[in-house]
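Budget justification aside, the reviewers requested a transparent look at the raw inputs and outputs of the sequence design task funded under Objective 1. We therefore reproduce one unedited record. The lines immediately below are the structure tokens for a 293-residue chain.
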């Protein structure tokens, strides 16, 4: 049984194949390869972008999609997560897409089902499809020539599953990574780090800004997000005329993560990431569901 719990579940060769499929899906309508397949979305955390992206990807491939409304599900009546998984499994889905606030939940569910599990984000652990679409967007921008490119990941890295997945994946493809954040947002790491954004802007090819994960903070870190923005917001004034690719996984806190001017700048690829996300998730759904028979 194949799952996508972390990006390590795919080899480099498999990722290259995924990207070839994604490129094809961006150019022409895809064949209905998942006709009569059933996909369940199981989101225990709020999501607009990731959930809709997966659902659109599945429907473009011809699959039927059922969303379990967790707020009205039996988990609210005391049913365990594993009983929920067993009951869903008994309905015969071909894949379950899971988001959960607790790290490791998609893996635990994968042990109780007979279908493919896609991790749509678990705690601060991993968000593999986001990292894949980010890498795809970077390759697209640089024409595939990415080995040795330098990326700064900026923001609440310690609490970011997007950062964790990107660090693992981009390193495998030869990118150099510097983490930029205030000390309390930096994880323990062997990667280069700095607390000063201006120190790296002349060195990097890519900046990935992150959303400040206020919902994951046990207590307020900054007196206000404006204080954070004064040091780490990606502004047009800070970037200047540098040839830097700007990414963000969304949702963007405008004028906190990135200012209005940079969001409108052609160097900012946030909307391209969203578009690419559908194509990359289509490729991943196709691969794992068809591989599992």
């Amino acid at each position: 049984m194949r799952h996508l719990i972390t990006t390590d579940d795919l080899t480099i060769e498999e990722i290259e194949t995924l990207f070839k499929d994604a490129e094809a899906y961006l150019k022409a309508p895809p064949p209905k390869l998942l006709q009569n397949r059933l996909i369940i979305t199981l989101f225990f955390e709020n999501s607009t972008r990731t959930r809709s992206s997966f659902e659109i990807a599945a429907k473009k491939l011809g699959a039927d999609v059922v969303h379990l409304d967790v707020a009205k599900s039996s988990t609210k009546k005391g049913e365990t997560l594993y009983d929920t998984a067993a009951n869903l499994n008994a309905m015969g889905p071909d894949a379950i897409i899971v988001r959960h606030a607790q790290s490791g939940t998609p893996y635990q569910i994968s042990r109780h089902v007979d279908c493919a599990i896609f991790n749509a984000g678990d705690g601060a652990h991993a968000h593999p499809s986001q990292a894949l679409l980010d890498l795809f967007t970077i390759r697209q921008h640089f024409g595939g020539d990415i080995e040795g490119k330098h990326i700064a990941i900026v923001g609440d890295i310690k609490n970011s599953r997007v950062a964790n997945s990107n660090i693992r994946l981009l390193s495998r493809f030869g990118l150099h990574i510097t983490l930029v954040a205030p000390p309390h947002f930096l994880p323990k790491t062997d990667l280069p780090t700095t607390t000063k954004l201006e120190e790296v802007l002349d060195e990097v090819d890519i900046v990935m800004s992150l959303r400040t994960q206020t919902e994951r903070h046990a207590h307020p870190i900054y007196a206000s997000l404006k204080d954070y923005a004064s040091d780490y917001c990606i502004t047009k004034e800070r970037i200047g005329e540098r040839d830097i690719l700007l990414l963000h996984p969304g949702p963007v806190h405008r004028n906190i993560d990135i200012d209005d001017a940079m969001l409108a700048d052609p160097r900012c690829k946030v909307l391209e990431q969203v578009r690419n996300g559908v194509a990359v998730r289509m490729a991943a759904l196709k691969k794992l569901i068809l591989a599992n028979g």
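The beta strands are 38-43, 64-68, 95-100, 116-122, 150-154, 176-180, 193-194, 206-209, 245-247. Residues 128-269 form a domain with the Rossmann fold fold (CATH 3.40.50.1370). Computational costs for records of this kind are itemized in the attached budget.
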